[in-house]
Design goal:
Length: 186
């Protein structure tokens, strides 16, 4: 008779919040992190860099700093681009807002989900109304009708295409075409 191997399965007690799933053992160890938690950690890291490292006395005069300045700027630009993407998604949903702490590098996180017990439904209804107002305002800024209405009429499309910058661009293209024809045929 062959022996068989019993695989031990472990149970890990975890807790989940808006930042991700954490191990209950240490409390700080993330098992899985959400985009909000990742944005918060990246934003905190960037704030630590800008608030502490860049404000050191004489750092801008160091030879090593000057030598590695292009790489530092490239890394910070990559961090900032990632944060812009995360912020665009977060603002689109409108559930969480980061407010920087004045005497710390951390952030306060404001959310209608953290309303007192009993007021959660009102807070979520208020959030939905604000989201609808923001969508309507964005549609007006872009001179589009809201998503639930029909597409823009032909007159609105013509008005949008005939902006001064579009007219100048068309005139520039015509001028370049005429000039190139003159050069070729003369």
């Amino acid at each position: 008779m062959r022996g068989f191997k019993i695989i031990r399965k472990r149970f890990r007690f975890c807790r989940r919040d808006e930042f991700g799933t954490r191990s209950h053992r240490g409390g700080r160890e993330f098992v899985k992190i959400t985009p909000l938690g990742l944005e918060l950690s990246l934003r905190t890291d960037l704030r630590i860099i800008t608030e502490t490292c860049y404000k050191m006395d004489g750092i801008h005069g160091w030879d090593a700093y000057q030598q590695h300045l292009p790489a530092i700027r490239a890394h910070i630009a990559t961090l900032a681009a990632a944060l812009r993407r995360y912020k665009a998604r977060r603002v689109e949903r409108g559930l969480f807002h980061f407010v920087p702490m004045k005497k710390s590098v951390g952030f306060w996180i404001l959310s209608p989900l953290r309303a007192p017990p009993g007021a959660e439904r009102k807070a979520l209804d208020k959030w939905r109304r604000q989201r609808q107002k923001r969508a309507a305002a964005a549609a007006l800024l872009l001179k589009k009708k809201p998503m639930d209405q029909a597409c823009a009429s032909l007159g609105e499309m013509k008005a949008r295409l005939m902006t001064p910058s579009a007219v100048l661009y068309v005139a520039y293209l015509v001028f370049v075409s005429v000039l190139s024809c003159m050069v070729l045929f003369l």
